[in-house]
Amino acid sequence: MRISKYLARHLRHDPGAIGITLDAQGWVPIDDLLEAAARHGFPITRQELFLVVSDNDKQRYAIEGDLIRASQGHSVAVDLGLEAVEPPEILYHGTAPLSLGAIKASGLLPMSRQYVHLSADRETAVRVGARRGVPVVLVVAAGRCTRADTSSGSAPTGCGW
């Protein structure tokens, strides 16, 4: 778990803290990452790295050839090359009770991330929300919110926009 958190910090949020540079799509050479981690007192073996990537149930990291990147959740600007798709009618957002007031006041916002994290199933949203205590799961009418009201050109009522 410590290695996964270390990777998240440096591949998603603060690569410069250990002297690595992500390319435009978020990739960094594996050797650069391993050398930088060792220089900064957190040695990781290639075997440990591959084990963390392969065993992660959320597929947080991807390896292609000699490159690695975080697959989601960046606060630094990267283009993951994700294709826009029509969402299902319902998606879920897991959060903590302390965040409800801000969400009610301003809606779901990405905060320091590039996107709001929505889950396809309630169970995943519960796990996400439980990271900071008792989970709260919000139901998002995603399908309705993506259909434009053609008469006014605005988002449909009730989408929080």
UniProtKB/TrEMBL annotation:
<dbReference type="InterPro" id="IPR042080">
    <property type="entry name" value="RNA_2'-PTrans_N"/>
</dbReference>
<dbReference type="InterPro" id="IPR002745">
    <property type="entry name" value="Ptrans_KptA/Tpt1"/>
</dbReference>
<comment type="similarity">
    <text>Belongs to the KptA/TPT1 family.</text>
</comment>
<keyword id="KW-0520">NAD</keyword>
<dbReference type="InterPro" id="IPR042081">
    <property type="entry name" value="RNA_2'-PTrans_C"/>
</dbReference>
<protein>
    <recommendedName>
        <fullName>Probable RNA 2'-phosphotransferase</fullName>
        <ecNumber>2.7.1.-</ecNumber>
    </recommendedName>
</protein>
<keyword id="KW-0808">Transferase</keyword>
<dbReference type="Pfam" id="PF01885">
    <property type="entry name" value="PTS_2-RNA"/>
</dbReference>
<dbReference type="InterPro" id="IPR022928">
    <property type="entry name" value="RNA_2'-PTrans_KptA"/>
</dbReference>
<comment type="function">
    <text>Removes the 2'-phosphate from RNA via an intermediate in which the phosphate is ADP-ribosylated by NAD followed by a presumed transesterification to release the RNA and generate ADP-ribose 1''-2''-cyclic phosphate (APPR&gt;P). May function as an ADP-ribosylase.</text>
</comment>
